[in-house]
Design brief:
With 454 residues, the protein is mainly β. Helix content is 12%, strand content 37%.
Length: 454
């Protein structure tokens, strides 16, 4: 990770300057977002996956990662709850995937300390363990539907809560014509719709049926619903010739899109809404690394959504990695990863272990990695050195990245058979998952059940 200069960290309440021509200042001042630095990250600190802001914007929950260089490879994940009013960490526990209840009084998370799905009460600090089976999935999101609390997981499973515990039975998001179920969803605050990934784009659909389907046509990351349900916000690549990321807001009623962070020089990730319409997000730039707020986000001029970015079913090595010769092996795996994404070290370690197992077993597979274009070369080398990664790397351009679906979820693992992409996995995969995946593709003659992106 890029180190943050100590003199660049400013106290909460300081706005980043937005320079406009003086002639147009009076007319335009109310037509731009305002950005506020909320909480800086330490120079050595990473963030595992998304952060979550409490509905009132006072408390920030995120999974902090910082490796102890005196110890063997491995970066512990610690759930931190920060009071942004006084910059104090109120609660820390080994864990990840914190998500606020709609009333802001509870936080659900996976506890690595106890190995359970847990809920912390903000009022008295008490914690309920064994909320639901871990096997139902993590990456929680929380809505309130018909007066009942509802938890959705990354595996498209959902369940209602009876107090602090799962009220059986668990339910699965049903498949719909053309789009299927979708992948890695987040739920709306009213518990009726989800954002999900289909064919490389962000899609909004009904949770329990197929009555509502809205394809944004945009390749982007996890999308968060505004509190009125009209808007979703997520980060997207800035342009094919640029390696940064911007936050966009899609209007589901008017079918428009706004680029909120185009004026910022660095990359912006994983936005989520407060009740008053601000966006909390993570920012990575030379001048600042940490969490920020954006207000007045709907002042950005809206543009019509146009041009679907669905990926072709058939994608080849040459389309994605034109600078690198296709491996001669029958199979090839490439892990797309990023220094700004704290899942990536875990994915690299597990792929490295899988490669060792495949070599012992004589599996005909080439294994390599590619850092996303937004990762600074010095940061790439530092992460590789710190974590003792010896996997080979190949270059990836912004244009090539468009074919990988890494815009949806970082890291992403691609599996090729004789130069044709036959499947991909979003998110970090364990060694066991990687080995089972390759074995299943081999058993099916080099074909996946549905093909990449489905």
């Amino acid at each position: 990770m890029r180190a943050t200069r100590r003199d660049s960290v400013v106290p909460r309440g300081t706005l980043l300057a937005i320079i406009l021509p003086a002639l147009f200042w009076n007319a335009a001042a109310a037509q731009v977002p305002a950005f506020e630095r909320a909480f800086p990250l330490r120079p050595e600190e990473g963030v595992f996956a998304y952060s979550r802001i409490s509905p009132d914007g006072r408390y920030l929950a995120y999974a902090s990662m910082a490796r102890d260089p005196r110890k063997t490879p491995g970066v512990p994940m610690t759930i931190n709850i920060v009071d942004l009013h006084n910059q104090r960490v109120l609660f820390s526990e080994r864990g990840l995937d914190g998500y606020w209840s709609p009333d802001g009084k509870r936080l659900i998370f996976s506890s690595n300390t106890t190995g359970t799905v847990s809920i912390r009460h903000m009022g008295d600090g008490s914690i309920t363990r064994n909320v639901a089976p871990m096997g139902l999935g993590d990456y929680y999101s929380w809505g309130t539907r018909d007066g009942k609390d509802l938890i959705l997981t990354i595996l498209s499973n959902y369940y209602y809560l009876d107090g602090d515990h799962e009220a059986k039975p668990m339910v699965r998001v049903p498949p719909c014509p053309v789009i299927g179920v979708g992948e890695r969803p987040l739920i709306s605050h009213d518990g009726k719709r989800v954002t999900t990934f289909v064919g490389g784009t962000v899609v909004v659909r009904s949770l329990s049926d197929c009555s509502y389907i809205f394809d944004t046509g945009l390749q982007g990351a996890k999308a968060d619903f505004s509190w009125d349900g009209r808007y979703i916000a997520f980060h997207v690549p800035r342009a094919e010739t640029d390696s940064s990321y911007d936050i966009v807001v899609v209007d589901l009623r008017d079918s428009t899109v706004r680029n909120v962070t185009a004026s910022l020089p660095g990359s912006s990730f994983y936005p989520n809404w407060t009740r008053d319409g601000r966006l909390s997000f993570r920012y990575d730039g030379d001048e600042y690394r940490g969490f920020m707020f954006a207000s007045n986000v709907l002042s950005v001029p809206a543009k019509p959504l146009s041009g679907m970015q669905h990926l072709p079913m058939r994608r080849t090595w040459g389309q994605i990695f034109p600078e690198t010769p296709q491996p001669s092996d029958e199979y090839a795996i490439v892990l797309i990863w990023a220094t700004w994404n704290a899942h990536s070290p875990l994915a690299l370690w597990d792929l490295q272990a899988a490669r060792a197992d495949w070599r012992k077993a004589g599996v005909d597979i080439a294994v390599t990695t590619a850092a996303d274009p937004a990762s600074h070369p010095a940061d790439v080398q530092r992460l590789i050195d710190d974590n003792r990664i010896v996997l080979p790397r190949i270059p990836l351009t912004p244009a090539g990245e468009k074919f990988t679906e890494a815009d949806n979820q970082m890291p992403t693992t691609l599996l090729f058979h004789r130069g044709v992409l036959v499947d991909r996995k979003l998110g970090a995969q364990s060694t066991r998952e990687l080995e089972a995946w390759v074995k299943s593709i081999q058993a099916n003659g080099g074909r996946a059940a549905t093909g990449p992106g489905m």
